[in-house]
C-alpha cells in the first residue's frame, strides 16, 4: 500500500528535515520501503518549501509525490499552493495559527505547532512538534521509529528539547485522533 | 549496515568503500553533495580532497593522482563534463584508471540546473575527440549509486580506462535505504602491476589488451604521453602503423569485452512481445507501468541498462526477432533509441522527455497500450 | 686537441634513444634542459622520486627526454595534473616544465591557483615570447609591438610579467634568468628543487625559427648576444618593476624567496586535528 | 695559507670533449667561451653542421664548463685536469 506525504511551509522551518526524518524512520526503524525527495534548488530558497515522502510495504517504483494522501502545511502560501494536489479523501494537517482555511476542505487536523514550540522556548522545533502530531494522527510511522529518527538527527545538546517537542506534538495528535479536542473534521 | 542515503551521498560512500582516496572537483548542481561529502570523509580516512579552480583542472588532477598511485574520482554535471572532455581523452589515451561521476541535469547549456536530464548519454560516449571506447554505468536507486560506484572503480582499475557513472538529478537527490555490506564482502579490484625489471618493462605492451601499470616513484621511469605512442611509451606521432595498433587496442579492450561488461536488468521479459528499454531513475517509472500493463494482460517487459557503454549490441541483436516492438523511455530526445534501433534493425518507438521531470507511470502505460494495440 | 666522445656524462638523465631532440638549432630549450641536468647532478635528488610534467608545445617535449617518470599531458593542464600527482604521492619531487603559452594563456588559471595554494612543486617556464610549435603566433608574453604571425603589424597587447604574476599569486620562490645565464640558472634550479612550496623560475630563451627571425634576431646566437647586452641583474627587487619591453633592459635575478606552509603540510595538520 | 696562494696562481686546465654528431651548429659554445678556445671546424657532421673544435693554443681552456652548460644538444663537456704542481 503506497502512501504519499507532502510536508510544506516556508524556508527556515526545517521542512526538508521533516521529510528526511519521516522517511528514514519508516525505512530504517519500521522496516518499510520509503523514499524522500526534497524540493530542490533556487525554488527552495524562500517562498514555499516542500519535501516529499513515499511510504510503502512494496517496492517503490515511481519515487515522487503527485497526489499526497497527507499534506502537512505550515504556511499560508504552502497551503494555497499544494492543497489542490491533495488526493480525494486525503488528510490535511495544518499549523492552525499560520494557515487560514478556505472553503471546501475535506479531512483537516489542526495543531498550534509553532505556539507549542515557542512555549518550549524554541520556535525552531515547530517542525518536530508537527512530526509528533503527524505520527499520532496518521499512524503511518510508529512512535518508536520517529523518536529514534528525530534523536539521531539533532545535536546531542538539543536531544532533550526535541524529544519534548516530539512528545508534545504526539500527545496533541493522540487527543485529536481520539476526538477529544474534536478538531479533526 | 543499513543507511538512509541520498544517491549523491551513497555515491561518495561507495567511492570511499572502493578505495578512492583522492577527489578533485568543482562545485556544480546537482552533483555538489558528492564533493561536500568527500570533503568531509576523505580526511577521516587519510585521503585527499581538493576543490580545483574548474572542471578542466579537476579532471587533470585525478589523472595525475591516479599516476601517483591513488584511486581517484571527480563528480560533475553536464556543463562540467563538457569541460572535462579533453582530459577524459587523455585518460583514455594514457590508460589512466579513474572515475568521473556525471549527475545529469537538463541541457543544453545551463538548461535546468536543479532538475533531471538524461541527455549526456552520447556526450559520455563521444565527448572527447578521436576514436576511443569508454565504460559508462547508470544507477536507478541510491543503493545502486553505492554499488555501481564501487563497480566503476573496479572496472577502471581492471580495464585502465576512465569510467563514467551516469547518474541523474532524480537519483542523486532521492533518499532511500542503502545496505552497506561489511568491508570483507565488498569486491575490490586493484590495477595490475608490472612483474618484470624496469629495463624489461614496456609500459604500453599488453598481452591481454590491458598493460600492467607502473606509477610514479616505483622506479620504472615511465614516459606517459597523449601523443600516439609505441609500447615503450615513446611518441610516434607520424606513424600510422603505431596509431593503428594503439587505437585498435584501446577500443578493442572494451569492445571485445562487451559481454563481460554487460549489465542488464530484465523484468517480466520471459514471454514479452513488447519491451520497454530504459535506464536511471526513469526506469523506475517504466517498471511501475509494466506492472500495471501486466495486470491487464499485456505481454510487456522491461530492459533496464545498468551498463550504458559499451552498448549491449549483441544482446539486442539476439532478442530483435523475439521482441515485436521496442519502446525506449528516456529523458532526452532519443539517444538510447538510436542505439537500440541500430542493433535491432527495425523501427523503435520513443517516449522522450526533454528534461525537468521523469515520466509518470501512466504516460508510459498509455504508450504501451498504443504501441501494443498498433495505434 | 679536443677529444671526440660518443656519450655525455649527463646522459644518464636522458632517454638517449630519443636524442637528438626535436628542437631547432639555436633554440634555448636545450640549454635550459642542460642546465636542469647539471642542477640534478649537483643536487641530492633521488631520481626514482623525481617526476616531470609538461603541457603541450615545444617546451612540453621536455618530459619525453628525461629518463624519469614523465608525463606529457594536455595543453595548459600540466599544473593540475602535477597537483594530483604530488598530492597522491607526497614523496615525489614534481617539476613542471612548460612554455609561456601553455602555462600562462590556456593554463593561466591553473598557475595562479596552484601558486595560491602553495602546492609543493617547481614550475620552470621557458618563455620564448611566442607559440613556437604552431609556427610563431603571439602569446601572453609577446612584447608590445613585436611581430608574430598573428601580429603581423606588431603586437597590440600588453604582455604578462610572469614573475610579477607568480609573486602576486603567492609563489614562495621567484627567479628570472635568460638562457645565457647558465650558471645562475642552474643555481636557481638547485635552490628551487630544494625548497618546499610553489617555486617558479622563468627562463627567457631564444626561438630563432619562429620569433627571432621576425624580430631582427634570425639566429639563436643573435638572441643570446642581445641577452648579454641587455640583461641587468637585480636581486630582490619588486618583480612589478621587471616588465619586459622591446629594446629595454631585461631585469633578471631572484626576486622572491619566502617561507609559507604548503597545501599538504596544512592538510596533514588538519588530518591530525580531526583524528 | 702560504701554500694556498702559490697553488691558486697556477691556472686550472680543462680537457674538451665533443660529441660531434649531436651538434646543430648554434655557435653558443664558441661565441661565449670566456677563453675563446673554440672555433667552428670545417668538417661536416652527420647532420651537415660544423661542430666546434679547439683553436691552436688549447692550453687556454681553464675548464670553467660554460660550454658544457650552454650547449643545447648535450654535445660538449669538460673534464678538469688534475692540478699538479709539477
Describe, in plain words, how this protein is organized in 3D.
The complex is a heterotetramer of chains A (185), B (375), C (275) and D (86). With 375 residues, chain B is an alpha/beta fold. Chain B has 2 domains: 2-185, Thiamin diphosphate (ThDP)-binding fold, Pyr/PP domains (Rossmann fold, 3-Layer(aba) Sandwich); 265-372, 3-Layer(aba) Sandwich (Rossmann fold), CATH 3.40.50.920. In chain B, 38% of the residues lie in helices and 22% in strands. Chain B has helices at 7-18, 32-41, 55-67, 78-94, 121-126, 142-159, 169-173, 240-255, 258-261, 282-295, 313-319, 335-344, 361-372; strands spanning 2-6, 20-25, 48-51, 71-76, 98-106, 112-116, 135-137, 162-168, 175-179, 223-225, 264-267, 274-278, 300-305, 307-309, 325-330, 349-352. In chain B, strands 2, 3, 4, 5, 6, 7, 8 and 14 form an 8-stranded mixed beta sheet that branches. In chain B, strands 11-13-12-15-16 form a 5-stranded mixed beta sheet, sandwiched between helices. In chain B, strands 1-9 form a two-stranded antiparallel ribbon. The longest helix of chain B is centred in the middle third of the chain and has 18 residues, at 142-159. Chain B is globular, with a radius of gyration of 21 Å. By secondary structure, chain C is an alpha/beta fold. Chain C has a single domain, classed as Thiamin diphosphate (ThDP)-binding fold, Pyr/PP domains (Rossmann fold), CATH 3.40.50.970. In chain C, strands 3-2-4-5-9-8-11-10 form an 8-stranded mixed beta sheet, with helices on both faces. Chain C starts with a strand and ends with a helix. With 86 residues, chain D is an alpha+beta fold. In chain D, 21% of the residues lie in helices and 19% in strands. Chain D has helices at residues 2-9, 28-32, 66-70, and strands at 14-18, 38-40, 52-54, 76-80. Chains in contact: A-B, B-C, C-D. Strand 1 (3-4) of chain C pairs parallel with strand 1 of chain D.
Secondary-structure blueprint:
The complex is a heterotetramer of chains A (185), B (375), C (275) and D (86).
Chain A: E1 3-10, H1 15-29, E2 33-38, E3 48-56, E4 70-73, H2 76-82, E5 91-95, E6 107-111, H3 113-119, H4 126-138, H5 143-153, H6 159-177
Parallel strand pairs in A: 1-4, 4-5, 5-6
Antiparallel strand pairs in A: 1-3, 2-3
Helix pairs in contact in A: 1-5, 3-4, 4-6, 5-6
Chain B: E1 2-6, H1 7-18, E2 20-25, H2 32-41, E3 48-51, H3 55-67, E4 71-76, H4 78-94, E5 98-106, E6 112-116, H5 121-126, E7 135-137, H6 142-159, E8 162-168, H7 169-173, E9 175-179, E10 223-225, H8 240-255, H9 258-261, E11 264-267, E12 274-278, H10 282-295, E13 300-305, E14 307-309, H11 313-319, E15 325-330, H12 335-344, E16 349-352, H13 361-372
Chain D: H1 2-9, E1 14-18, H2 28-32, E2 38-40, E3 52-54, H3 66-70, E4 76-80
Amino acid at each position: 500500500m503506497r502512501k504519499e506525504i507532502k510536508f510544506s511551509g516556508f524556508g527556515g522551518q526545517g521542512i526538508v528535515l521533516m521529510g528526511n526524518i519521516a522517511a528514514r524512520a519508516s525505512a530504517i526503524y519500521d522496516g518499510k520501503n520509503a523514499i524522500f525527495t526534497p524540493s530542490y534548488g533556487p525554488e527552495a530558497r524562500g517562498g514555499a518549501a516542500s519535501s516529499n515522502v513515499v511510504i510503502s510495504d512494496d517496492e517503490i517504483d515511481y519515487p515522487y509525490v503527485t497526489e499526497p494522501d497527507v499534506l502537512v502545511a505550515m504556511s499560508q502560501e504552502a497551503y494555497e499552493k499544494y492543497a489542490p494536489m491533495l488526493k480525494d479523501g486525503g488528510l490535511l494537517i495544518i499549523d492552525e495559527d499560520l494557515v487560514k482555511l478556505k472553503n471546501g476542505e475535506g479531512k483537516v487536523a489542526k495543531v498550534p505547532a509553532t505556539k507549542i514550540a515557542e512555549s518550549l522556548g524554541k520556535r525552531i522545533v515547530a517542525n518536530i512538534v508537527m512530526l509528533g502530531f503527524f505520527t499520532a494522527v496518521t499512524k503511518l510511522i510508529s512512535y518508536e521509529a520517529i523518536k529514534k529518527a528525530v534523536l539521531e538527527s539533532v545535536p546531542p545538546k538539543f536531544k532533550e528539547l526535541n524529544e519534548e517537542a516530539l512528545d508534545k506534538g504526539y500527545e496533541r495528535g493522540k487527543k485529536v485522533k481520539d476526538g477529544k479536542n474534536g478538531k479533526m473534521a | 549496515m543499513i543507511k538512509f542515503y541520498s544517491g549523491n551521498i551513497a555515491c561518495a560512500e561507495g567511492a570511499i568503500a572502493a578505495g578512492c582516496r583522492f577527489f578533485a572537483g568543482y562545485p556544480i548542481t546537482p552533483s555538489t553533495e558528492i564533493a561536500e561529502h568527500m570533503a568531509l570523509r576523505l580526511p577521516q580516512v587519510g585521503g585527499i580532497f581538493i576543490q580545483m579552480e574548474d572542471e578542466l583542472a579537476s579532471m587533470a588532477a585525478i589523472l595525475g593522482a591516479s599516476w601517483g598511485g591513488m584511486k581517484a574520482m571527480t563528480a560533475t554535471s553536464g556543463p562540467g563534463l563538457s569541460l572535462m572532455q579533453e582530459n577524459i581523452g587523455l585518460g583514455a589515451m594514457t590508460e589512466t584508471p579513474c572515475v568521473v561521476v556525471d549527475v545529469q541535469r537538463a541541457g543544453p547549456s545551463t538548461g535546468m540546473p536543479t532538475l533531471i536530464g538524461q541527455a549526456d548519454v552520447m556526450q559520455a560516449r563521444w565527448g572527447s575527440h578521436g576514436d576511443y571506447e569508454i565504460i559508462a554505468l547508470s544507477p536507478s536507486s541510491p543503493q545502486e549509486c553505492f554499488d555501481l560506484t564501487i563497480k566503476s572503480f573496479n572496472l577502471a582499475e581492471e580495464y585502465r580506462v576512465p569510467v563514467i557513472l551516469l547518474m541523474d538529478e532524480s537519483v542523486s537527490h532521492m533518499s532511500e535505504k542503502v545496505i552497506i555490506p561489511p568491508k570483507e564482502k565488498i569486491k575490490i579490484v586493484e590495477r595490475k602491476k608490472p612483474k618484470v625489471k624496469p629495463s624489461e618493462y614496456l609500459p604500453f605492451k599488453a598481452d591481454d589488451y590491458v598493460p600492467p601499470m607502473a606509477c610514479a616513484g616505483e622506479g620504472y621511469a615511465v614516459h606517459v604521453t597523449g601523443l600516439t605512442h609505441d609500447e615503450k611509451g615513446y611518441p610516434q606521432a607520424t606513424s600510422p602503423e603505431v596509431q593503428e595498433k594503439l587505437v585498435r587496442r584501446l577500443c578493442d579492450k572494451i569492445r571485445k569485452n562487451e559481454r563481460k561488461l554487460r549489465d542488464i536488468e530484465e523484468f517480466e521479459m520471459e514471454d514479452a512481445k513488447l519491451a520497454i528499454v530504459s535506464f536511471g531513475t526513469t526506469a523506475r517509472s517504466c517498471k511501475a507501468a509494466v506492472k500495471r500493463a501486466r495486470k491487464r494482460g499485456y505481454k510487456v517487459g522491461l530492459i533496464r541498462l545498468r551498463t550504458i557503454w559499451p552498448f549491449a549490441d549483441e544482446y539486442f541483436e539476439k532478442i530483435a526477432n523475439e521482441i515485436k516492438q521496442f519502446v525506449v523511455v528516456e529523458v532526452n530526445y532519443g539517444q538510447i533509441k538510436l542505439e537500440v534501433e541500430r542493433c535491432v534493425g527495425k523501427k523503435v518507438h520513443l517516449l522522450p522527455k526533454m528534461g525537468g521531470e521523469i515520466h509518470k507511470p501512466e504516460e508510459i502505460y498509455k504508450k504501451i497500450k498504443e504501441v501494443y494495440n498498433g495505434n | 686537441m679536443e677529444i671526440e666522445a660518443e656519450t655525455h656524462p649527463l646522459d644518464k638523465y636522458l632517454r638517449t634513444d630519443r636524442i637528438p631532440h626535436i628542437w631547432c638549432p639555436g633554440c634555448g630549450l636545450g640549454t635550459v634542459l642542460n642546465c636542469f641536468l647539471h642542477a640534478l647532478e649537483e643536487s641530492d635528488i633521488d631520481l626514482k622520486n623525481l617526476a616531470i610534467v609538461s603541457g603541450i608545445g615545444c617546451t612540453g617535449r621536455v618530459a619525453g627526454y628525461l629518463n624519469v617518470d614523465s608525463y606529457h599531458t594536455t595543453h595548459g593542464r600540466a599544473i593540475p595534473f602535477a597537483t594530483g600527482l604530488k598530492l597522491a604521492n607526497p614523496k615525489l619531487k614534481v617539476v613542471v616544465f612548460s612554455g609561456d603559452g601553455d602555462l600562462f594563456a590556456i593554463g593561466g588559471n591553473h598557475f595562479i591557483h596552484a601558486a595560491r595554494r602553495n602546492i609543493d612543486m617547481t614550475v620552470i617556464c621557458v618563455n620564448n615570447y611566442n607559440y613556437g610549435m604552431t609556427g610563431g603566433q603571439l602569446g601572453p608574453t609577446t612584447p608590445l609591438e613585436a611581430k608574430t604571425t598573428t601580429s603581423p603589424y606588431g603586437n597590440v597587447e600588453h604582455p604578462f610579467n610572469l614573475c610579477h604574476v607568480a609573486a602576486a599569486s603567492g609563489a614562495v620562490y621567484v627567479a628570472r634568468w635568460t638562457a645565457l645565464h647558465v650558471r645562475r640558472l642552474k643555481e636557481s634550479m638547485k635552490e628551487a628543487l630544494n625548497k618546499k612550496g610553489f617555486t617558479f623560475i622563468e627562463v627567457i630563451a631564444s626561438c630563432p625559427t619562429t620569433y627571432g627571425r621576425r624580430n631582427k634576431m634570425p639566429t639563436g646566437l643573435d638572441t643570446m648576444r642581445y641577452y648579454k647586452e641587455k640583461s641587468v641583474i637585480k636581486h630582490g627587487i619588486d618583480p612589478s618593476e621587471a616588465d619586459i619591453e622591446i629594446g629595454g633592459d631585461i631585469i633578471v635575478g631572484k626576486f622572491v624567496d619566502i617561507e609559507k606552509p604548503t597545501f599538504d603540510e596544512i592538510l596533514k595538520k588538519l588530518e591530525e586535528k580531526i583524528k | 695559507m702560504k701554500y694556498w696562494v702559490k697553488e691558486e696562481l697556477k691556472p686550472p686546465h680543462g680537457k674538451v670533449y665533443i660529441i660531434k654528431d649531436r651538434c646543430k651548429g648554434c655557435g653558443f659554445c664558441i661565441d661565449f667561451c670566456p677563453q675563446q678556445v673554440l672555433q667552428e671546424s670545417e668538417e661536416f657532421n652527420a647532420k651537415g653542421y660544423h661542430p666546434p673544435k679547439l683553436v691552436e693554443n688549447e692550453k687556454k681552456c681553464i675548464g670553467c664548463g660554460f660550454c658544457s652548460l650552454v650547449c643545447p644538444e648535450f654535445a660538449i663537456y669538460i673534464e678538469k685536469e688534475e692540478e699538479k704542481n709539477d
